[in-house]
């Protein structure tokens, strides 16, 4: 059985990197699911969505001449459910503002830590 573009397969996550996940396909072949192809939403940390050893359904996006296999979990789910695009649940304006303020505070705290470290180095 060869891996064909557009086909869906059951696979097992064999490794995770900051840019995606490696999925072991039938016959021992391995493909890469880029982080942008994991879910329909923004994925900051891939570990929040999948883990090593998870069984996943993937769709083959491309098989390169060099044997590299590009996969998508997101597109496998879209076709499998027979539905159009998923709508994100409605989030109130207050919830969005609270999330924005929380993220801003975290980013500001990180910047302060980094500037404190830089300030400490220059004094030495």
TrEMBL record:
Domain of life per record: Bacteria
Comp. bias regions, Basic and acidic residues: 85-105, 113-124
Molecular function per GO: mRNA binding; structural constituent of ribosome
Disordered, as annotated region: 72-124
Coiled coil: none
GO biological process terms on file: translation
Residue ranges annotated for the S1 motif domain, each copy included: 6-74
Name of the protein: S1 RNA-binding domain-containing protein
């Amino acid at each position: 059985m060869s891996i064909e573009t557009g086909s869906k397969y059951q696979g097992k996550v064999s490794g995770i990197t900051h840019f995606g996940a490696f999925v072991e396909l039938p016959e021992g072949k391995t493909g890469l699911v880029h982080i942008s192809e994991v879910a329909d939403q923004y994925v900051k940390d891939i570990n929040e969505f999948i883990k090593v050893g998870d069984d996943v359904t993937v769709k083959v996006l491309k098989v390169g001449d060099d044997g590299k296999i590009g996969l998508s979990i997101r597109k496998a789910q879209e076709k499998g459910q027979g539905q159009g695009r998923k709508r994100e649940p409605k989030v109130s304006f207050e919830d969005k503002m609270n999330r924005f303020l929380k993220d801003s505070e975290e980013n500001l705290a990180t910047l302060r830590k980094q500037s404190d470290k830089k300030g400490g180095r220059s004094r030495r």
